[in-house]
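Exercise 7.
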Amino acid sequence: MTAAVLESVDQPLVVDEITIHPPRAGEVLVRVASCGVCHSDLSVIDGGFPAPLPVVLGHEATGVVEEVGEGVHSVVPGDHVVLTPLPSCGACYFCLRGLPTLCEAHSSALFTSTMPDGTSPLERDGSLIYRGLATAAFAEYAVMAEAAVVKVGEDVDLGVACVLGCAVQTGVGAVLNTAKVEEGATVAVLGAGGIGISVTQGAVVAGASTIVVVEPDAARREAALGFGATHVLDPGTDDVVAASPDLTSVGFDYVFETAGRASLIEQGIAAVRVGGTVVCVGAPPIDQGISIPGVVGFTSTEKRLIGCLLGTSNSRYEIPRLISLWQAGRIDLDSMVTGRFPLQKANDAVAAARSLQGLRTVIDMGD
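Solution. The predicted structure, written as tokens, is:
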């Protein structure tokens, strides 16, 4: 099959022919339809998130089941599916405690770039190619664990629904599952890329009364208003911390950092109200850290700082729920896809995503 392979950090992807092995017991071979380009993919390409090489990236995808391995019963060839990089086994310590993205059976694959057993279904000329971010969907086909494919109706547009795999599942889930934002709450969203817009939409679904999106790009600020933001701020000219009590009287109930910058987490801690919650949704480079000066002030005001991985989502539940919200007109997926490229132009897609063109760039695999 054809795939876009990252051979070296900070170098263009190489679109090449590689071999993909057939599905084993409990696995599914999917013919990929579309795959979004996520900030996490860029972080691997740029070296901010280390991964073994060579690797096929892409983890926000849809497709059609081509073949199933022994013991697979939830899907059959021809089924339309959304892929998820962090499935839940439903039975381990973490899954049983409502933390499905920390699943003992599957979560390690996101960081090892292999299947959970340490193998990869990909190779070229007998040499292993890694399965990036637990999916490897910048390719014509992908092998997934059965739990990592979620069947959807044939009426679902796979070219749009791919954004459910990461951006929307992460952003809406961060609001509804991780933070559990209550109706009437006040929310600030730091960043208005695909994740930030998804958080914004999640805040609308949750019934937040004030949704302030902070974004340096004017076009993205304008887009955020269309997705439900009540206010937008330009961090180049507006003091976000000073604006917090002006817009909310006491400070934001919730602040979501979505751009993957550690400095914005610190800003969120300053902007959130006493007893409020800062949610770390973005993925900063691995060498970035945060500082909390006067930590006694943080603890004595009972502010909370919490992590978020894929919106704390159980994808078998979350993806159908999001599709229902989309079909009911309560969230907008179509407007999130602002650029499309064929697989042969994967590097153009990466460049578009890196330059912050639009909200979500999608690679379409074609027939």
